[in-house]
Every structure is written in structure tokens, then in C-alpha cells.
Amino acid sequence: MGQGFTVKPSVLQSNGQGATDLQEYCQAVAVDAVETLAGMASSAGHPGLASALTEAAGRGDKAFSGMLAAYGHAATGLAASGQTYANADQANAARTKGVTSQDLPFLNGVG
Amino acid sequence: MAGGPSVPGDPDALEQLAGRLRNAAQGVGSLGSNTREFTTGTVSDAEWTGSAADSFSAFGTNLGNGAGAAEGPLTRMASAVENYAGSLRAAQQKAQAFNSIADAAQDDPSGSLMSAAEQAGQNATDAISAMQQAANQAASEVTAASGELQDLFGNGPVRGFISSQPGLGDDLPLGEWTPGDPIPADYGTEILGNPGAPDLGLGTETLPPAPELGLPQGDPIPPELPLIDGDPIPTGLGPEILGNPGSGLLGPMINFNKSGESGDEPENGDGTPTPGDDTVAPRDVHGQDRTGSRGVDVPFVKENGDLLFQSDGQLVRVLDNGNGTSDVVIYDPSNPSGAPTTTIKDMPESQVQSRIDSGRWFG
What we know:
The complex is a heterodimer of chains A (111) and B (363).
Chain A: H1 9-43, H2 47-97
Chain B: H1 11-45, H2 51-69, H3 71-107, H4 114-154, H5 157-163, H6 187-192, H7 202-206, H8 209-213, H9 237-243, H10 247-254, H11 298-304, E1 306-310, E2 315-320, E3 325-331, E4 340-348, H12 349-358, E5 361-362
Antiparallel strand pairs in B: 1-2, 1-5, 2-3, 3-4
Helix pairs in contact in B: 1-2, 1-3, 2-5, 3-4
């Protein structure tokens, strides 16, 4: 009935940076793509196509904004998850320190 | 020549930009595969298991798929513009040729160039017409592709991810965001539909209390254990481990409450008790023992039942009766009396499993 869980908090925390790296790469690509579409609109020489390209730049902007937000969400989520796991470990350790031999009679006389 | 046909546009620049857009498209393709690898690697390297890890895997995979799917629309837009650039160049060349011949014909008193000029004029007209058609076609293709691009994250992988989760919301504002806008504070909850994330359970997942303390497997640290002076249990320890405070911060990736379930409510999600479940109302969390007449042997169940954690930080003991039902005792470990807040006699296994599946109980 019970479920087992494991995790290495430090890996999650460090991989939060990995997600940030992906986000930064995404942003670089996004800027390139959107600027390129806008540049195409300027060079098109045809009103209809220029309008379509301008609209595409705007849509791309929105799409990449959502994508960037999702990467940011992954980055902060991973870091926060790792921190919470780490906090739980520390709290657990603190609680362990609070147990004395008095509380565990079977340890009396040991050590 | 004054008054000759003029065809605006810069085909060289368009072709150069199309190449750049194609590179950007390949970039998002790589981003997609890298994201999927990153997701898999993170879960693997962290040896992360459980519902939170599953949630992150799903989120990251969908994000990677969505990013990778942007490659197609961007590539199609690049191709459409490249095709148009070719027509534009041809039209400009034909127009220029006509202008040159027309200039020469104008200066030729013999009139021998007039026929050539007329032919060049027709060629230019045809080329410009073809260019117009190419432009219209490119515009249609660009519009269609940009719509696909917008749908990827306005209605795409994240939204698809949501729709794959029972009961989660469908009205994401992702497509409404504009560049530079901050991520909404409730972004994660919008994505995964778990405001408050009371059942996050992160702390509980990491809690390996018994083995480290040498206590029986799965047992919580008895609340009556005294502390060493000067080393008190932190104020937030209890909820941190058993009740997942701050879960709103982490919930997005991890918690998947069904719509209407806060983790504190009964499973019918309407805020009223589920029939047969004598869960104590929130205001009675530390209330009286109501078990006497219900036939649950509380000490026996607490001693022999399987230990689970409830999302509100209480402990749950479930004793299998061997007939498809279980006796359940729910109690607050911080209550020195040890008296249960809730007991359930002969709870069907399906209901027990339902609570586990929903994340209301975990362990």
C-alpha cells in the first residue's frame, strides 16, 4: 500500500540551473526567429505578405513567451523542489539529534 | 526610365533571412530534444521517484515536444519566403529588362526596338503577375504556419498536458501573454491545476523517519519523545515533513489534485462529507474521540495498521480486515492524548485506494 520515494536534492537544485540554461537558449532562438520574421516583413515588398509576416512575428512572440515561461517554471520548480527535499532532510536530521539515550532505554549502557 | 514598372522588395535580404529563420527552426528542434534528454537525465540522476517525479517527467517531456514542434512551422515559413523571393527576383529582372529596352526604344528613331520592347513588357507583366500569386501563396502559408506556432503554447503541449489530467482546467491564458509580461504568480497552478497544492507531499516523500531512528519501519517519531535542551524541533518541522508547507511553490510540477479537491475535502469534492466517512470537520481537527461506539479497536489499529500520511499532516493507520475492507484510524501526532480525530470501520478497499490515488493519503 505504501509508496517508496527517493531523491537526491542536490541534483534537483543543480539541474534547476540546467533548465535555466535551456531557457536562455530558447530565448536566443526566440529573439532570432521573431526578429527575422519582422525583417522579412520589411523586405517583402508586398503588402499582404508583409502583413502576414508581421502577424507571424507577433504570434511567434507569444508562443515563445509561453515557452520561456514554461522553462522558467521548470527551473524554479526544480530548484524549489530540491530545496524542500533538502530542508526535509535537515529537519529529519535535527529531529534525530533530539533523541537521547534516555528516550531510548534500550541504548542505556551501550557506548 | 521614368514611369517604368517598379517592383519593390529585396529578394537577397529575404533569402538571407529565410536561411536565418531555418537555422532558428533547427535551433528549436534541438531545444526540444535537449529538453527531453534533460528531463530524463534529471529524474535519472536525482534518482527521483514518486508522483512528483512522474509529474515533472510529463511536464518536461511535453515542453520538449512542444519546443521541438515549433521547428516545422518556422521551417515552412522560411520555405514560403524563399519561394516568394525567387518570384520577386524574376519579376524585378523582367521589369528592369523592359525598362532598359523601353528606354532604348524611346531613343531609337527607326522604331526597330519597339517589338522587343513590347515583348519585354509582356514578360514583365507576366512575371509580376506570377510574383503576386507567389506573394499571396506565401502569405497564406505564413499565416497557417504562424497559427500552428501560436497553438503550440497557446493551446499546445502545456494545454495538452492539462487536458490529459482529469478535471484540470482548460482555460489557460498562455496564449494571451505578451513578451515582457511577468509570469503570473499562479502560473504553475494554471498549468497543472493545483492551487495551493496541499497534497504536494514533497516533505513526506523524503521522510525516512523510522530507519534513521532505529524505530520500526514506517513509524513516525513518537510525539512524546522529549528533545534535548537547546535543540528544539523547528517550528515548521511537523508541517514540513508531514504537511508540506510551501507546497504552493512546488505544487506546479508535483501535485495533481483533481478539480474540486483540495486534499482537505472529501472525495466528492463539494466540501461535504462523503457518506460513510466520518471525517472530522476542519474545526474539529483536535476534537474529541468519537470512536467509542464505532467498533474500531483504535490501539490495535494504531499498532498494527499500515502507516500513511494525510495531506493535512495527520497520520493514518489502515488495518486490512482481510475481507476487502479496512479499519482506519486518523490521528494528529501533535495531539499528546493520542486520541484519533477520525475512525472508519470497514472502509472498502476501493475507497482506501481512491484516497491514495488522489494523493490525499500517501506513504
